[in-house]
Amino acid sequence: MSAESTGLSARLRYGRVAFRHWRWQRPFWAGLLTIVAGVPIAYFPYANLTLGQLTIRMATTAGSGSLIIGVLLFVLGLTMWFQSAVRVFAGVASILLSLVSLVISNFGGFLVGFLFALLGGALAVAWAPGVPATDDPGEKAELPDQPPGPAGSKDDYYAGAGGTGLPTVPAQSPYADPEPVHAGARPEEETTEENGRHRAG
Question: The whole model's pTM is what?
Answer without folding.
Answer: 0.58
